[in-house]
Amino acid sequence: LCMISGPAVSIGFKMKGSLISGGREAEVAADQSRFQTDITGDFHIHPPVESPLSGQAARLGEILPWFIQNTLIHYLAPRGLEQYTGGGWGTRDISQGPVELFLGLGRHEPIRDILIRLFKMQNSDGDWPQWFMFFDRERNIRAGDSHGDIVFWPLVALAQYLIASEDETLLDEVVPFFHPEGDDRAETATLWHHVERALAVVDNRVIPGTRLAAYGHGDWNDSMQPTDPAMRERLCSSWTVTLHYQTLTTLAEALNRLGRSHEANPFEAMAGEIRDQFQRRLLVDETITGFAYFRDDDRIDYLLHPRDKATGVSYSLLPMIHAIINDLLTPEQAKKHLDLIKAHLLGPDGARLFDRPMEYRGGPQRFFQRAESASFFGREIGLMYTHAHLRYAEALARYGDAEGFFLALCQANPIGIRFMVPTATLRQANCYYSSSDGAFADRYEAFLEYDRVKKGDMPLDGGWRVYSSGPGIWTRLLLQSFLGLRWERSALVVDPVIPKLLDALRVEMKLGGYPVEVIYRMEGSGCGPKMVDLNGLDLPFTRGANPYRTGAARISMGAVRQRLTTGTNRLTVHLG
Questions:
Q1: Phi then psi for 85, rounded to 5 degrees?
Q2: What is the DSSP code (8-state) at residue 321?
Q3: What is the pTM of this model?
Q4: Which neighbouring-strand residues pair with 206?
Q5: What is the pLDDT of residue 83?
Q6: What percent of the chain is predicted at pLDDT more than 70?
Q7: Which residues contact 488 (CB under 8 A, 6 or more apart)?
Q8: d(CA 379, CA 372)
């Protein structure tokens, strides 16, 4: 159904479905209303009316409940609207979208449930399948292998949960490994032993003589699976190295939070080695390489880098932004890479994976499978994959570019998309799009005329809808990075990144079950809290670490609860 309207103050229609007949309409309507209020924490955003960014900020609040709904669809019935015939839980996806949604909402219990389900699907050798079916009746329908990054994602999700919840009991939970004949036949172990077995897999998958993760069957970009099996052991994806580093540092932080610093120390030491080798081997001519191919004669070929004369691609987005997110770069290096992204990887719709697409090859493949052979120019092939664009937004927030971060959030919002992206084609306005696809006739035209995308001279279609972990990531970025409010067991972490033009932004929401009105006052760059007060009383805080800008304010949860009242509370955040 497609409805096109002329200009109007508001339009609407209602669709109702019921499994039973009867006069329950009022009760059903009340249930729906409670659901929206409960899931969003009764969230309302009130931008300053006089600000030129007011409309864009208001639209962020309008899309929030829809993106939450999109994430829940993907979580509860794992398939997108373009996969109506079926779909499974992608290990990578489920470890990000729903987990980050519930982290953003401060709801830790469902994350615990997700983690137990994830670790029950771990193979006894320590790795996970690329994807698996959610329901027990389909338990044996699962991938036979996985990409080289998959083993990291459940570990990152676990560490993020432990930092937020401090739930040490989860590590002692006895969980079976996957067995095709059922849990009764499976080997069981504590969840921490599951972690140790996964880490053993990680330790064995490195480039010989280094701590750098080997590529294996691929990384996050599904189109870049290597053609030559020999490349799996000698090829290193710089992005996977950043994920390995993130896994170790996040686990170390979680263990330190739980008072298990003796277990955290080896992770911190190993992360330090990876950081050193990343800087020495993968940062070439001051630019992070997409891939490094370690040859037997000690030569290294750099792919997706200005030195690359083979693929025609010079810049790769993912390793750059994840290096910034995980503090692998100095402030000077981070700025240089953000400048490279602006010069070579940004289009009117956001950040793109490469500076140009791989050349389509109708015959034998040379380097990467789908990137060279897929006939459809969309999703990863089309280069603007929204999930990666959101990680670019996260990098901007970490770095402290408030204006760029706000723009990136707005570019992923389908409501009023033509205000932000004039070349966007008509599309459904209340759902997440996993990509933005240049409307080329075929891949030959896309390769020859790709510059038309950057120039804004090519219509852009919305890709797959209600799919991937993207809407959950977006929700966390809105709540924890834009508004900068992270509710943990022992602390309220305040770290907003808001443009100065939104001074006096006001938000109504619930924090820890309490109604709170949050007011933001801009006195400088739009990030780095100078002062936080609750109901007129200053909250003492410690300063979080950030190598690029002033860090977060970490406030004791005891101090917060002492000042909370049963009525509406007012939290005022003064930004430097």
A1: -85, -5
A2: H
A3: 0.94
A4: 213
A5: 67
A6: 94
A7: 163, 164, 165, 166, 557
A8: 14
